[in-house]
């Protein structure tokens, strides 16, 4: 088994202010994308006027992550790494929802170095106010929550990737509690109508999407000869009111987290088991948005899957 190590060392001289990258605002409940286009530019102007931030230009951000990625609710680990190399400290992602007749503007701040949620802020546009009226208030709130940063150098931790030659048979996986059904996806969803986003269906972890049902969904499952092992992880991709990540057991289907509404991971044993299999990050905001957008690090997840099987643990918490 050969280990390949990649080392990245990046210098960022005398960065006195937090360096921010602002994504295009996303339309949430009750709005279309055209309704919120341009709001990120208003926020950038207000952030600049606070004197507290260094801001990356939209054109430069587009070059780093691609124009089509500017209107996404999250970025992949590789894209965050590109921002870190350029000395960006924080990524701002905004959403506007129309609920109860009020326009609510919510911003999430992601620490580029760790990929974790760092802070949040929000304002409500009241009757008679404009979006431009609200942006200085939002910018000032962010100015109080983000620190002044003095950075002599940024070092990205070395990443070691070890190829995993082991492939599992159906018998091996069934022996530790995974289940295979005679027909995958009973009902309207059929594998041959789904799109494979990454992975190898002959033997390995696979990310795939289904756009045929009422709710478009992405799925993460381990495949052996075109058949996948239950339980599998799933997430709705087309309903802004229900950012729901959950589980298919083959017979039963249920949610683990409905983002910003409820979290039942600790109450549902199979949710805890999948967290044990794939890693502690799978129910975090960052992972949920990456899973929804199809940009998860499947190689890391596959390594976690293999580590679980090698540990001798079993799946014994079926409904």
If you had to describe this structure to a student in words, what would you say it looks like?
The protein has 319 residues and is α+β, with helices and mostly antiparallel strands. It has two domains: 4-156, Rossmann fold, CATH 3.40.50; 164-310, no CATH class. 27% of the residues lie in helices and 32% in strands. The chain contains nine helices and 15 strands. The strands form three sheets. Strands 9-10-11-12-13-14-15 form a seven-stranded antiparallel sheet. Strands 2, 3, 4, 5, 6 and 7 form a six-stranded mixed sheet that branches. Strands 1-8 form a two-stranded antiparallel ribbon. Helix 2 (39-50) crosses helix 5 (131-145). The radius of gyration is 21 Å and the shape is elongated. The two termini are 38 Å apart. 32% of the residues are buried.
List the helices and strands and how they pair.
Layout: E1 4-15, E2 19-22, E3 26-27, H1 33-36, H2 39-50, E4 54-55, H3 58-65, H4 77-85, E5 90-99, E6 102-111, E7 117-125, H5 131-145, E8 151-161, H6 170-175, E9 195-198, E10 203-210, E11 217-224, E12 227-236, E13 244-248, E14 253-258, E15 262-263, H7 269-278, H8 285-293, H9 298-310
Parallel strand pairs: 2-4, 2-5, 3-5
Antiparallel strand pairs: 1-8, 5-6, 6-7, 9-10, 10-11, 11-12, 12-13, 13-14, 14-15
